[in-house]
Amino acid sequence: MPIILRHNEELEVSRVEYAGVVRARDMHDHAAFNAAQPAWLGFDCVSVIHADLDATSFSLADLDGVFKAHRDLFEPLNLLFMRRSAWVCESPQGQRLLDHWMTKRNSHGSPWAEVRLFETFDGASDWLMLNPEHAAMLASGKGFREIAHFGAVASQTR
Q: Which of 23, 38, 58 is nearest to 150 (CA)?
């Protein structure tokens, strides 16, 4: 699946993975799911853009549209919590899109999430204050159960 939301109850951390062909619609559907079920937004999260990401089907303008839809979905929720959101990107194509998203996000701010980009899971794990055993779980995905997926079947499963 292109976008998969997983959660680890022991760590109280969610993990969102982006792989294969990801469309703007998939990203919007993921945001709409979170807006409809905001309980999942209360957890710290690591988002992983895998090396096999194929986002050639949408442009930076499409990403701007997803960004606007994302803000339109979340601003009315008036979320009263702060969460940490770490990003780890293994894809040059994904990095270009993530850099664009982060620039827009940082210029608009967000009162409910502190978002940071890391080169490795080690950096993300340190920031999320995970011990070495839990850091290994974060990196491997061990103990994370699937909550929802968005998009068509990817070329490989995780």
A: 23
